[in-house]
């Protein structure tokens, strides 16, 4: 029986998970591919560290040694940083290998080049693990929604932020206490900036945009806001309205261009994101034939991420040519209606004489208001202390027991 030879770059949480899964699921690979899958080499940084791998696996810190192997079919990348990763993957494609990556920062920056290079070299690229860990969202968009026209994608794409928001609400903790808890549990790095300031979710949103809409928005135009402005007072005020804060990335096509935002929003009980708690991720895909699909599951971790990568291994081995069909038909969301239509917002820091319609002062200094986004953006431009959060879906005004709105 012929063999597919694989190299794994990195033997940390993800790389080791991939290695162990290839060993434990050998039978399934053979049944699906009709070939054995063998790990020929593993790239690591520190050669002194003890690793539990078979003796016939080349364990090296020199990528050139891997490229020189007599047979190499797939390179699975699970290291960190944009470089030397991008260089390694370009060389792997040049050598005629399919590549699979989990590295979202690198892929958000260089995915386009890698996909183009792969096409020229007639190999495939798997990048399921770059977005939402174990949830098969890329393959769903790429393989299972080929005819549907996507209008909107929304996602809770960063487990650390979702964990912090959940802890703050459930345990009535401050942001700082919940962040510390996330670090103690190993969910947040010592420097959590990428997670809590929304960069990680931003990179994932850009990757999703490319697969769903065939292009990305101009990165400078994307509203990116992390969760550091969310206070215990805001969480309590939201709870009074039976709403929960979620950090959501959204991507759509409006007025002929792709528009994206990554920011905290409020969701009610009827929204599937309301029940997505802790480190879980979820993605809503809105499309014209099927309507809304919600995919939910583990956004990180050894085996969920390995699951995404080994399913990609099957995908790249079965692809007959390079990357295909990534430009999809999409549906426009009307630009004029968005931004100008009145919506409900939870707002902190409004002063008197703001001229906005206040439905209720939910807590001291925190109001539920009705306004268009355009007017609120204008007001916030004049009063920089204001923070405001949109509400996805309906607000049940009955729970407020208010008879009339007032202008403040
Ligand atoms: N952890 C998750 O749940 C998760 C989920 C989705 C995506 N990802 C992405 O997957 C990638 C790997 O994450 P991880 O959590 O597995 O990281 P990790 O545990 O820190 O492991 C990184 C591995 O890469 C090796 N490495 C790092 N730089 C290298 C270099 N320049 N040359 C050779 N080897 C190098 C390290 O070698 P040594 O062992 O010798 O130090 C280590 O084995 C990252 O891009 C991450 O964003 C992770």
Automatic annotation (TrEMBL):
Residue ranges of every copy of the Aspartate/homoserine dehydrogenase NAD-binding domain listed in the record: 10-127
KW Oxidoreductase (keyword) present: yes
Superkingdom per UniProt: Bacteria
Keyword Amino-acid biosynthesis tagged: yes
Enzyme Commission number(s) from the entry: 1.1.1.3
Catalytic activity: L-homoserine + NADP(+) = L-aspartate 4-semialdehyde + NADPH + H(+)
Assigned keywords, A-Z: Amino-acid biosynthesis, Methionine biosynthesis, NADP, Oxidoreductase, Threonine biosynthesis
Pathway(s) where this gene product acts: Amino-acid biosynthesis; L-methionine biosynthesis via de novo pathway; L-homoserine from L-aspartate: step 3/3; Amino-acid biosynthesis; L-threonine biosynthesis; L-threonine from L-aspartate: step 3/5
Record domain Homoserine dehydrogenase catalytic: where: 136-314
Pfam assignment, any one: Homoserine_dh
Family: Belongs to the homoserine dehydrogenase family.
Protein name per the record: Homoserine dehydrogenase
Organism: Neobacillus kokaensis
């Amino acid at each position: 029986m012929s063999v597919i030879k694989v190299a794994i770059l990195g033997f940390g949480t993800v790389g080791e998970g991939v290695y162990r899964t290839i060993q434990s699921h050998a039978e399934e690979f053979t049944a699906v591919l009709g070939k054995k899958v063998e790990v020929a080499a593993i790239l690591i940084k520190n050669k002194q560290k003890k690793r539990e791998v078979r003796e016939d696996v080349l364990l090296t810190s020199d990528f050139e040694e891997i490229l020189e192997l007599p047979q190499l079919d797939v390179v699975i990348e699970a290291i960190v940083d944009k470089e030397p990763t991008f260089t390694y993957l370009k060389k792997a494609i040049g050598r005629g290998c399919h590549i699979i990556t989990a590295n979202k920062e690198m892929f958000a920056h260089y995915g386009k080049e890698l996909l183009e290079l792969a096409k020229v070299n007639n190999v495939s690229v798997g990048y399921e693990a770059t977005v939402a860990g174990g949830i098969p969202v890329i393959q769903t968009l790429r393989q299972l929604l080929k005819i549907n026209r996507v209008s909107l994608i929304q996602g809770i794409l960063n487990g650390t932020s979702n964990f912090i928001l959940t802890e703050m609400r459930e345990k009535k903790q401050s942001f700082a206490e919940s962040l510390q808890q996330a670090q103690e549990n190993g969910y947040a790095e010592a420097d959590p900036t990428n997670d809590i300031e929304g960069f990680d979710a931003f990179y994932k949103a850009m990757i999703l945009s490319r697969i769903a809409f065939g292009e990305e928005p101009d990165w400078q135009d994307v509203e990116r806001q992390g969760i550091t402005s969310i206070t215990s007072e805001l969480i309590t005020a939201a709870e009074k309205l039976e709403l929960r804060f979620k950090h959501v990335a959204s991507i759509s096509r409006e007025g002929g261009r792709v528009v994206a935002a990554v920011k905290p929003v409020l969701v009610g009980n009827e929204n599937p994101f309301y029940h997505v708690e802790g480190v879980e991720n979820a993605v809503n895909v809105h499309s014209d034939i099927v309507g809304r699909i919600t995919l939910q599951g583990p956004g990180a971790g050894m085996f969920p991420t390995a699951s995404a990568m080994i399913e990609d291994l099957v995908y790249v081995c079965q692809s007959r040519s390079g990357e295909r069909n990534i430009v999809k038909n999409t549906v426009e969301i009307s630009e004029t209606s968005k931004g100008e239509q009145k919506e409900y917002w939870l707002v902190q820091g409004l002063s008197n004489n703001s001229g906005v319609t206040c439905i209720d002062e939910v807590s001291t200094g925190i109001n539920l208001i009705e306004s268009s986004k355009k007017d609120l953006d204008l007001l916030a431009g004049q009063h920089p202390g204001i923070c405001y959060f949109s509400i996805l879906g309906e607000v049940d005004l009955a729970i407020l027991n208010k008879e009339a709105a007032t202008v403040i």
